[in-house]
């Protein structure tokens, strides 16, 4: 039962990945990330964990944007985004969990 419930929670998060991807894109652009990099970056959920997905060729550029380099100051879009959406993820999980409990008649 626990596995079915966790799978349902993970599937619910995956359904919201487009929303989180759009929110990340806005945040990254505000922080000065290049539009091309932002367009090629998506938010994904796997086993309840949030991650950014992107082409491996962008790894160095994204790390330089996020943490800075000798020539470029950090533009921490990922860390700021993660901190700001954690409550939203918890709300989605809680809402979905409560709905599942009612749908299964646990409180009847």
Total strand count, please?
Answer: 2
How many structurally independent domains?
1
* Beta-strand content: 5-15%
Radius of gyration: 17 Å
Number of H/I helices:
5
Helix content: 55-70%
Instruction: Give start-end ranges of low-pLDDT stretches.
Output: none
What is the overall pLDDT average?
83
Shape: elongated
**What is the makeup of the main sheet?**
2 strands, antiparallel
Can you tell me about this structure?
- This protein is mainly α and 108 residues long.
- The protein has one domain (2-87).
- Helices cover 64% and strands 9% of the residues.
- It has a two-stranded antiparallel ribbon with strand order 1-2.
- β1 (42-46) and β2 (49-53) form a beta hairpin.
- α1 crosses α5.
């Amino acid at each position: 039962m626990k596995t079915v419930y966790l799978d349902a929670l993970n599937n619910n998060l995956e359904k919201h990945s487009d929303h989180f991807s759009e929110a990340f894109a806005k945040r990254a652009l505000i922080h000065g990330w290049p539009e091309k990099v932002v367009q090629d970056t998506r938010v994904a959920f796997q086993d309840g964990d949030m991650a950014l997905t992107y082409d491996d060729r962008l790894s160095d550029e994204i790390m330089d944007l996020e943490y800075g380099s000798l020539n470029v100051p950090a533009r921490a879009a990922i860390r700021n985004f993660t901190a700001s959406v954690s409550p939203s993820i918890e709300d989605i999980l809680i809402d979905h969990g409560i709905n599942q409990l009612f749908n299964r008649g646990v409180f009847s």
